[in-house]
Write a structure and sequence with these properties.
Number of domains: 4
Radius of gyration: 26 Å
Structural class: alpha+beta
CATH class of the largest domain: Alpha Beta
Number of helices: 16
Bound molecules: adenosine-5'-diphosphate, magnesium ion
Distance between the termini: 29 Å
Helix content: 25-40%
CATH superfamily of the largest domain: ATPase, nucleotide binding domain
Oligomer: single chain
Shape: globular
CATH topology of the largest domain: Nucleotidyltransferase, domain 5
């Protein structure tokens, strides 16, 4: 195992290199670093803004615009302007539930198990690629400002992000040309920004209250010997400053005696009202009353009225705090600090209610609430760079550990730089009918194709009863102990058949070999992601062809001759596209086949077939 401090990934060449901290937010993103005065500093653009709206616009000519400029296009070209992409990161369409109508751009809905795809100008993007565009923008701003290449970063994610969402964030970073040293929880970063957790001897419990633009998160953390443990999280993924803005707009419509439906139907007028509401709301954090006459509207509201309007919204956040506290198993009196995060915590009523709820605890709100997460990420980066000798560094695993999935792809279970001991588990399924032998190949490395990684072990899960493809549930578990020994378990959950194997990943591996593997993964990031995406599209298409042909066989009697020949033609077109190695073409014909069969497939679809083929296949 390597100590994080002297990073074997970089050796001596990058001693001077700055590692940045990035807050990749739902509404806004920003990047920070430790400046020459050893202080965390959020980078600002030429207009003095540190915040970059997490919005990506695609022009008709293929140009990509990120940030404030992209925000303008939400009104004039919503279909090609992607916002809130963090809500889609690491998710499949079936994970999305019924929030699809929330998005103004096109989300493909036919592949319910694979990662969500967004269609823009006939091209297909994953949330990873869109997030990478935001990260690239932040990276280039940092490089422009610091006048040096920026290659390494710490990126923050919500405490509740699952394994897939964290992996997607790492992938986005790699695609943007960043070696992601660590994924850090947002509440942990915010606490670090206030210096909490920097003293090894402290032991305390803290609450982090994060009210942003569209989301609310409350986390209760226990802090011991510099280690943050998340005791509980709660929140509401649709609660935030946007709701305050809407409340003001509603109030103005009433006060100006306007017809609500008419106003809301006029997209640009209602968007204008919302932007005005946001602008004046921000002022209300500091003054007693605001008023403005514009476009024949009297836009006026007092702080008192505003508080009355938002009281029920803020109360909802307090209910979440109540639940988080109960889940943490702590008493109110055991919480010693509350950290305020997110632009909306500038609203005085929010501060007041949080303070009243956590009575007795110390409220931290001196730092800029929309910068604290990035500032804390910069501090974490500094710790990982080994610049803080007073801080204990933990053993980590220097390379990712995972297994091979269909198409020769690497599926990482334990990402590199994870503190050890650690464990992870994931479920897989089969791709062929009646498989009784399931092969598990264990690999180590950062590349997307297992062929480029290091094989650690291979074993057969034997005696699995014959089942149709997609039905077996194989749970693969990785356990890496403090001595660096990896125990891999595989168990078919329906039959109970299981198998265990032990390996020592670091055996026979030198530091320079590890370093080379890491460098190769960065150099080949774009190529690797492209390869992964074409393989995923091809596998998905092959699976669709397989399912559709089975469907035709079973239901031929109930379909018209035209439906049959039409479907066969679409299958052939899709099959032909498989040979092109062009992801967008494969996805296009995939979508075409799906669209063609949807009307009659829906009325005939065999439920067993529909339910088969769930999860990644090995
Ligand atoms: P996210 O974490 O979702 O990316 P932020 O933490 O950047 O979001 O918070 C954005 C929200 O903060 C917006 O709703 C914005 O209107 C609100 N906000 C920013 N400044 C103020 C202020 N001075 N008073 C009240 N709300 C504010
Ligand atoms: Mg945030």
């Amino acid at each position: 195992m390597a100590k994080v401090g002297i990073n074997i990934a970089t050796g001596s060449i990058q001693q001077e290199e700055i590692i940045v901290g990035i807050d990749l937010g739902t509404t806004n993103s920003l990047v920070a670093f430790i400046n020459s005065n050893q202080q965390p500093y959020a980078l600002n653009d030429m207009d003095g803004y540190t915040i970059v709206p997490s919005i990506v616009h695609f022009t008709a000519s293929g140009e990509v615009i990120v940030g404030n400029e992209a925000k303008q296009h939400l009104i004039d070209d919503p279909q090609h302007t992607v916002y809130s992409v963090k809500r889609l990161l690491g998710k499949s369409f079936s994970d999305l539930g019924n929030i699809q109508q929330y998005f103004g751009y096109k989300i493909l809905d036919e592949d319910s198990e694979g990662l969500i795809k967004i269609k823009i100008h006939d091209k297909y993007y994953t949330a990873i690629e869109i997030s990478a565009l935001i990260l690239k923008e932040l990276k280039s701003r940092a490089e422009h400002y610091l006048k040096t290449p920026v290659k390494r970063a710490v990126i923050t994610v919500p405490a509740y992000f699952n394994d897939a969402q964290r992996q997607a964030t790492r992938d986005a970073g790699r695609l943007a040309g960043l070696d992601v040293l660590r994924i850090v929880n947002e509440p942990t970063a915010a606490s670090l920004a206030y210096g909490l957790g920097l003293d090894k001897n402290e032991h305390q419990n803290i609450a982090v209250y994060d009210l942003g633009g569209g989301t609310f998160d409350i986390s209760i953390l226990s802090l011991q010997q510099g280690i943050f443990e998340v005791l509980s999280t709660n929140g509401d993924t649709f609660l935030g400053g946007d709701d305050f803005d809407k409340a003001i707009v509603n109030y103005w419509m009433e006060a100006n005696q306007k017809n609500r439906d008419e106003i809301l139907a006029d997209k640009s007028l209602s968007q204008w009202l919302r932007l005005k509401a946001e602008e004046l709301k921000k002022q209300l954090s500091y003054v007693e009353e605001v008023s403005l006459e514009e476009n024949g509207w009297n836009l006026c509201i007092s702080a008192e009225k505003f508080e009355e309007l938002i009281l029920p919204i803020v109360k909802r956040s307090m209910d979440c705090c109540e639940k988080a506290l109960a889940d943490s198993g702590l008493q109110l009196s055991e919480i010693s600090n509350i950290v305020m995060v997110g632009g909306s915590t500038r609203t005085p009523l929010v501060k007041k209610m949080v303070d009243e709820f956590f009575k007795g605890a110390l409220l931290f709100d001196a730092l800029n609430p929309d910068e604290v997460v990035a500032l804390g990420a910069a501090i974490e980066a500094d710790i990982l760079a080994g610049n803080r000798s007073d801080i204990l560094l933990l053993d980590v695993t220097p390379l990712s550990l995972g297994i091979e999935t269909l198409g020769g792809l690497m599926d990482t279970l334990i990402p590199r730089n994870s503190k050890i001991p650690t464990r992870a588990a994931r479920q897989y399924t089969t791709s062929i009918d009646g498989q009784s032998n399931i092969k598990i190949n264990v690999y180590q490395g950062e590349r997307d194709l297992v062929a480029e990684n290091r094989k650690l072990a291979t074993f057969d899960l034997k005696g699995v009863p014959a089942m149709p493809a997609g039905l077996p549930k194989v749970e693969v578990g990785f356990q890496l102990n403090a001595d660096g020994i990896l125990t891999v378990t595989a168990k078919e959950l329906r039959s109970g058949v299981s198998q265990v194997i032990e390996v020592k990943p670091q055996y026979g591996l030198t530091d320079s070999e590890v370093e080379k593997m890491l460098m190769d993964s960065l150099v080949n990031a774009q190529k690797d992601v492209d390869t992964r995406m074409i393989i995923e599209a091809q596998t998905e298409a092959q699976q669709l062809i397989y399912l559709t042909e089975r469907f035709l066989e079973k239901n031929s009697g109930m379909l018209s001759a035209e439906e049959i020949s039409g479907t066969k033609q679409k299958i052939e077109e899709l099959r032909a596209s498989l040979a092109t190695n062009d992801k967008n073409s494969v996805l296009k014909y995939n979508e075409a086949l799906n669209e063609y069969t949807a009307p009659f497939a829906e009325r005939l679809m065999d439920i067993a077939i529909a339910q088969a083929m769930k999860g990644k296949q090995i």
